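Supplementary Methods S3. Complex input for the iron/sulfur cluster-bound model.
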Amino acid sequence: MTLFEAVASASGGPPDPHTASQQAIAAELDHKLAGLATLEDRIAAIRAAIDGRVAFSTSLGIEDQAITHAIAETGAAIDIFTLDTGRHFPETLDTLFETEGKYGLKIRVMYPDAAEVEDLVANDGIYGFRYSIEARKACCEIRKVRPLNRALKGAAAWITGLRREQSQGRSHVPFASYDAAQKLIKVNPIADWSLAQLEDYIAANNVPVNALHAKGFPSIGCQPCTRAIKPGEDIRAGRWWWENENGKECGLHTQGEDPGFEPKDHAA
Ligand code: SF4
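Predicted complex, serialized as structure tokens:
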């Protein structure tokens, strides 16, 4: 059975030729990345495997800083962008500034639509996301998900810093897979890294990191929706802490999946 036939059989019917070809490339890349030891080799392999634009969404958190470093080291032609929600910590913007300066690269900054933000705040208030999950999802949709979708439009592949160790919901994150919602290949080059491995890489390469990491913030999102965690707490415990532990996702990595707040998932 060819890879195309295997993909068609597994999905219950033949996908269109473009989707089938992207699924096959993703499957090959998933296998290839598992056999490469260094992040630099993985970044080079991703770039070599993909025809077209490869986009990397950085939250400027520790995982994404490691990937930015490897991209800069390899010189791979990868479009790096970040989402400025308008609610970031100053330390996050400092990290953006410092990273561009250290590596001599430009990080494209995506902003939400101003009219949509104005309508959102007019309807829900400046802290409307605190009052209901629906209001919080609406805020993430306007400030994060829509700018993300614009940034990924036309991209052939999307690199993220997801790690399996981050949460139960991410424990099966592959190195590469076809993202049917975004219609591109989603690649997670440090999916198998432990936190210790990540911290070793950051220290060995003197990678700039957000100053908040040293103050109890392992996962950093918008300022009003992120707090420091206490010793022993889950690394995602400081995100949307007033909500149920299940399903604390902003929607960046769950489009096309059940958008409900069921199983707990990722960090953006
Ligand atoms: S994390 Fe909070 S402030 Fe940021 S987009 Fe989501 S709800 Fe809005």
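The chain has a mean pLDDT of 89. Strands lie at 54-57, 79-83, 108-110, 157-159, 176-179, 184-187.
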